[in-house]
Input
Amino acid sequence: EAQVTQNPRYLITVTGKKLTVTCSQNMNHEYMSWYRQDPGLGLRQIYYSMNVEVTDKGDVPEGYKVSRKEKRNFPLILESPSPNQTSLYFCASSALRDSLDGYTFGSGTRLTVV
Amino acid sequence: GDSVTQMEGPVTLSEEAFLTINCTYTATGYPSLFWYVQYPGEGLQLLLKATKADDKGSNKGFEATYRKETTSFHLEKGSVQVSDSAVYFCALSPPGTGGFKTIFGAGTRLFVKA
Output
């Protein structure tokens, strides 16, 4: 089954403790992206990647890092999480040639930073 | 900058009622327009799209028409079902970005009562 898999689904952590949210897709998509979803604000793009070793900032990149060492994986790293990063996070992917056909989204990771 | 404005929810309807969710946008030129749906506990799924003025996107009984003159892309369905209860997001991709910079609205939650 074609899908985007995120782990974990739920995470509670403390301020300052480094964490990684993993994202993997099995569709050989070149494009991958991270979004955060907050009430009343919709989805805002954090980082995106057009291919291996090619990443770029979205609209809200502060406090986050990403890497794209393999085509299928696009982890999101919070080196020193803070409470304002409590949010619902989504990973998305698409083929470059089909980018205007919309994205495939993962099921989300709900992160709470206390 | 580019933006998407959706009607605030929640919207509560009885089964078989007519649905309209308003969406207007601000963008230079001719963006591509999308509607995504998010069912409880899941990621977003592409519902329909339109890539040029006067195009009508349709899927699963939902329709939306790209109106350049009113910068709108309202979502409609003639007869809603309980299973349509979800959050609906209007989104746009600015021209020249190849679909890689998608901007989402805040989302509109729909409840359908039996």
Chain B has a mean pLDDT of 93.
